């Protein structure tokens, strides 16, 4: 290998790693899934709506529809790669941190931020219905700017 080929070698991509993550989650690593996974998981943990992710995909010249973004986010959630934080019937955020924790919803900014699991104590949970087990408890504390 001569010097020129060393210098022109591309910067290592996270793609092979994300492809493996998708396969392990039981998802076929299609080009669109890998591209969306790259956008979602290439930085610090965060909360993103389908519309925000579509905007990021457009900016990164990833050609996907909002329907594909929705489907992919729900597939990632079902596969355990994301957690859904449902604010109301028409608004959901997808959290790249799937560990147990809670959220503040900042109504003025329409933004979700984390509350550590230890920040809220949940007591006296009712017995779950017969034949069911509690998987987790999500708390969303809704706040708005003080007038
Ligand atoms: Zn979170």
Can you tell me about this structure?
The chain is an alpha+beta fold and 147 residues long. The protein has one domain (12-143): Orthogonal Bundle (Arc Repressor Mutant, subunit A). Helices cover 33% and strands 20% of the residues. The chain has helices spanning 3-7, 15-24, 31-41, 50-59, 66-78; strands spanning 47-48, 83-88, 91-95, 101-106, 111-116, 140-143. Strands 1-3-2 form a 3-stranded antiparallel β-sheet. Strands 5-4-6 form a 3-stranded mixed β-sheet, with no helix packed on it. A hairpin with a 2-residue loop joins strand 2 (83-88) and strand 3 (91-95). Helix 2 (15-24) crosses helix 3. It binds zinc ion. Zinc ion binds at residues 47, 95, 97, 101, 103, 114. It is found in: Cytoplasm.
Label this structure with key terms.
6 strands; alpha+beta; disordered N terminus; 147 residues; binds zinc ion; single chain; 20% strand; Arc Repressor Mutant, subunit A; 3-stranded antiparallel sheet; 5 helices
Brief write-up:
The chain has five helices and six strands; from the N terminus they run αααβααβββββ. The protein is α+β, with helices and mostly antiparallel strands and 147 residues long.
């Amino acid at each position: 290998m001569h010097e020129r080929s060393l210098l022109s070698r591309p910067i290592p991509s996270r793609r092979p790693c994300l492809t493996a993550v998708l396969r392990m989650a039981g998802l076929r690593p299609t080009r669109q899934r890998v591209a969306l996974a790259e956008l979602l998981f290439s930085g610090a943990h965060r909360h993103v709506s389908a519309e925000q992710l579509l905007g990021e995909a457009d900016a990164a010249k990833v050609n996907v529809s909002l329907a594909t973004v929705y489907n992919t986010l729900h597939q990632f959630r079902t596969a355990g790669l994301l957690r859904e934080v449902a604010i109301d019937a028409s608004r959901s955020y997808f959290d790249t941190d799937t560990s147990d924790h809670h959220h503040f919803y900042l109504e003025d900014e329409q933004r979700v931020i984390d509350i550590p699991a230890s920040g809220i104590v949940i007591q006296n949970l009712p017995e779950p219905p017969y034949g069911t087990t509690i998987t987790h408890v999500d708390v969303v504390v809704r706040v708005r700017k003080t007038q």
